[in-house]
Amino acid sequence: MRTITTITELRRALALQREQGKRIGFVPTMGALHDGHLSLVRQSKQQLDVTVVSVFVNPTQFGPNEDFSRYPRTLDADAGLLVDEDVEFLFLPSVEEMYPPGNATRIHVGQLGSIFEGAIRPGHFDGVATVVTLLFNAVQPDTAYFGQKDLQQVAVIRQLVRDLAFPIEIKIGATIREPDGLAMSSRNRYLSVREREESLALSKTLFLVRDLIHKGASIDEAKIIGNREFQRISPSGRLDYLAVVDIETFREVTSFEREDRPEWPSAIIIAAQIGSTRLIDNVLI
Ligand code: AMP
After folding, report:
1. Ligand 1 pocket test: which of 37, 153, 170, 177 has the largest number of ligand atoms within 8 Å of its C-beta?
2. Bridge partners, residue 54, by sequence
3. Of 173, 206, 233, which residue sits at a domain end?
4. In sequence order, which residues have a C-beta less than 8 Å from that of residue 127 and are 6 or more positions away?
5. Ligand 1 centroid to 258 CA: how many Å?
6. Which of 228, 233, 260, 263 has the most crowded CB, counting CB atoms within 10 A?
7. Which residues line ligand 1 (CB under 6 A)?
8. Is residue 238 part of a domain?
9. What is the pLDDT of residues 167-180, one digit of tens each?
């Protein structure tokens, strides 16, 4: 694996690969890698000739009171995992490389960026769209991989690629979970033993609400029971939202009457604060 820290050097190295007819797969991450990230890496390794993984904790997607400075940074372990997966290139830019003095341009994603996660984390998706644009321009991949775990991010990226005509195929990897159901996340390592138990409230609530809807409950009924289930498993947790949304627009779906059926498949999304850790999860319906 070759580790590269500048955009110029990365472009030069990847141009050589492209000249040899190699197709490039790209997996952007913020590091603290786990099996969720590695499942995307494995798809890229299988489907393309050369895989680039970026590890960059992007300051522009964190709010002023969020966990940017304490976000886990485990670079040696990450590099070891990527070597084991036979990744060809690790892109490891500094903040100054990505945002040199004087940089000012930002992507604004519009409505999709201001609801649900975007409402709670103002500016978050603009930061995501900005860094993904920068990374796409640096890597110029044929295919880029994102996780369903961050479903609203997936919608934002799809819109970004459509709106700005990036010639890049976007592929989505399924959410990888711990054996007990908790969606893997770099932030899970913040959880105390007690909080780790309470964190099951997210996945268990999602699975229950999905079962209820499948059995014919209305969305409202299922959400009321889901709220109760969440509080039962996590008495100290704060549920930020539990909603059924169209996965493309993130517009809320309130019933499955035929005339209301969304054009796209829908998902149940959940976000909660467990102790000092904010967790999100979702399941498709
Ligand atoms: P992050 O490092 O949190 O920015 O995540 C990098 C990529 O990995 C994003 O596309 C995430 O959606 C994806 N990802 C994170 N957790 C999981 C998971 N549990 N299963 C699948 N993909 C994931």
Report:
1. 37
2. 28, 91
3. 173
4. 58, 59, 60, 61, 62, 106
5. 34
6. 233
7. 29-30, 36-37, 39-40, 146-147, 149-150, 173, 175-176, 183-186
8. yes
9. 999 999 999 999 99
Confirm whether 214 is domain-assigned. yes
Q: Residue 143 is which amino acid?
A: T
Domain region containing 244: 186-284
> Which alpha helices (DSSP H) does the chain contain, by range?
7-19, 35-47, 75-84, 95-98, 117-120, 124-139, 151-163, 193-198, 200-214, 219-233
Calpha distance 172→209 (Å, rounded): 23
What is the model's pTM? 0.97
Distance of CA 136 to the CA centre of its chain: 16
* Predicted confidence (pLDDT) per residue in 158-204, tens digit: 999 999 999 999 999 999 999 999 999 999 999 999 999 999 999 99
Task: Provide the domain count of the chain.
Answer: 2
280 CA distance to ligand 1 centroid (A)?
11
Domain of 242, CATH number, reads: 3.30.1300.10
> Which 3 state secondary structure label does DSSP give 80?
helix
Per-residue pLDDT reduced to its tens digit, 36-50: 999 999 999 999 999
d(CA 249, CA 262): 10
Backbone CA torsion sign across 203, 205, 208, 209: negative
The CA 132 to ligand 1 mean position distance, Å, reads: 14
Smallest CA-to-CA distance from 267 within 149, 186, 172 is with 149
Locate tokens 């998706």: which residue? 125
In a domain, residue 121? The reply is yes
Ligand 1 atom at minimum distance from 40 CA: 22
Question: CA 41 to CA 173: how far, in whole Å?
Answer: 10
- Please state, in angstroms and rounded to a whole number, the distance separating the CA atoms of residues 38 and 162: 26
What does the DSSP 8-state code read for residue 175?
A: P
* CA gap 241, 250 in Å, rounded: 13
